[in-house]
Write a structure and sequence with these properties.
The structure is a homodimer of 323-residue chains. By secondary structure, chain A is an alpha/beta fold. The first copy, chain A, has a domain of 199 residues: 3-Layer(aba) Sandwich (Rossmann fold). In chain A, 41% of the residues lie in helices and 17% in strands. The first copy, chain A, contains twelve helices and twelve strands. Chain A has a seven-stranded parallel sheet with strand order 3-2-1-4-5-6-10, with helices on both faces. At the A-B interface, helix 5 of A face helix 5 of B.
Chain lengths: 323, 323
């Protein structure tokens, strides 16, 4: 079993690779990203790592010429950058995705080839105003170029699957929380910062009110969604190949209460309130809650309390200890 | 006022041109299609007609270099052909549409330019299974490559509009009935054939049962949708720029009853029943009914009885007389 992961150097890509190595069912990995991904520790099979730009002529073809059995496409220009650089966003998020799908179709014209394709989409395909909960049949009216590019990728994935060129599934990830690493400038960063930084004894800034509600899942759940998407029978999906993943709808206030329960008042006191009208406005257009019946019926699972999300961070990132 | 119509040689394109000439507000037309459109009779202003392929390098740029105030994009490879020829469908229905939108954006980078763009989409963006009525917030899960390409065009239109590159609106047309001309091989052809042919004293074949329900509007309504989309204020649409148009939900049996009322038993006897399982299967995946609240609130109107649809055909195509 040969697995190709595109975007393997990112946070989700690295965690997914490690999980797949631990599972032990793959005998070959091809790991690509714009910077060369690390070779996973403890893997006995063949590993090729490669730094490349999927949007460049011939790159998708060269990756697909090896006929991987599974292709996980995680690579993307993130929301803020796709909004700031229109051409670059469309080039990477749309053209490169289409080049990948086309390379698979053309490989299959030489001799039969129908790999599993797992595409990571995003709840950014939805745009306000929203119903109380976004159901499985709600329309995609993105309010960013990034969300537009992901929604187009979903449509292409469904059409290429329907035509039999590959066996595809699109996974709309919730916001990943607690995201490990340093605080960054993403507008959504605070959802993780206000937990991760206090757990490490550091101060964090909260730019919005405690009543802000959003849709979360842990990095461990995100990896679980992807491995399930790789291994499950996709026939029950029919022609509707894109799924909103389960998650936890919680307010910032509920996040803070969970932090208090898990790490105590000392941690909570490290959250500094600095209201930022720009971030407040951006966040007000984001989804707050979903009803993900299809994904639930298909066995996808996420956390049900924020205490659990915080404990997963402590286990997976902090060696089980609060700093 | 300079109006560019792409796909001007088609049935809707010709009728739209004639209506706009009669309205008298344009002083210049550029009419393009894969075959050169006819110069409209009785127009005093400047008319350029041109046979060209919008997907070819430089064609979109050359059309947009003239800075038309209104751009109506009707050109498309139809459903059956886009399904039979995957490359050609994506090239014309997706790449050419994107080339047009990009040409407008790039023209606007030279000096401010923000034309009105009217894009014709289709109810083919929806795919079965459906609710009883398809509402304005129902998701697009096309079951054809044509429907996929139209849904992608809608997403691009909304994003280019949101970014301020043009002022766009996407119009999802119902099936046009009664379509003038000869019977053709389109799977949907019989909806028009069973009315048009008997009205002309000719036999017509009905390949499905009388209980088949579908969504219709006259050619006159289609032109009305487009002229309204050209002239109305689009600000109330916000970011949601694509609209299902109103229509008439009717069964084949209701169509036949209307024919009986308008043209008598003699016409109805010209319908020959020849059940065709292939056409039955295709039609079973098509939308049957819609609830088009947004379009109605914005003043878009269609026929409310099939008698009216038939009378419009008699007035507009048969000089007011039944043959």
């Amino acid at each position: 079993m040969h697995i190709l992961i595109i975007g393997a150097a990112g946070m989700v890509g690295r965690k997914l690779t490690n999980r797949l190595v631990a599972d032990g069912s793959a005998d070959q990995f091809t790991l690509v990203d714009v910077i060369a991904p690390e070779t996973p520790a403890g893997f006995k099979g063949k590993v090729v790592t490669r730094a490349c730009d999927l949007a460049e002529d011939g790159v998708a073809e060269s990756l697909i010429a090896e006929r991987p059995d599974f292709i996980v496409h995680l690579a993307a220009i993130v929301s803020g950058e796709a909004e700031a650089d229109f051409d670059r966003g469309y080039r990477i998020n749309l053209d490169a995705t289409r080049a990948l799908f086309e390379a698979i179709r053309r490989e299959g014209m030489k001799s039969p080839y129908r790999p599993r394709v797992v595409f990571t989409s995003s709840i950014a395909v939805f745009g306000a105003p929203f119903p109380e909960k976004i159901g499985d049949e709600y329309f995609t009216t993105p309010l960013t170029s990034y969300g537009t590019q992901k929604a187009i990728g979903e449509l292409l994935l469904a059409d290429y699957t329907r035509r039999g060129f590959f066996d595809g599934i699109g996974i709309r990830l919730p916001t990943i929380c607690v995201r490990p690493g340093k605080p960054n400038k993403a507008a959504s960063g605070f959802f993780s910062n206000i937990l991760r930084e206090p757990l490490a004894g550091q101060e964090a800034i909260l730019p919005v009110g405690e009543d802000v509600r959003h849709w979360h899942a842990s990095p461990r759940s995100a990896v679980g969604f992807l491995t399930r998407a790789m291994s499950m029978d996709l026939a029950p999906l029919g022609a509707r190949r894109n799924l909103s993943m389960p998650g936890l709808s919680a307010t910032v206030g509920e996040q803070i209460e969970a932090l208090r329960r898990v790490a105590g008042e000392k941690a909570v006191r490290l959250i500094r309130r600095e209201p930022d009208p720009v971030i407040m406005k951006i966040v007000s257009g984001w989804p707050r809650d979903f009803e993900t019946k299809r994904a639930a019926a298909l066995g996808f699972k996420a956390e049900t309390t924020f205490d659990e999300i915080i404990r997963i961070h402590i286990e997976d990132e902090l060696g089980g200890k609060i700093g």
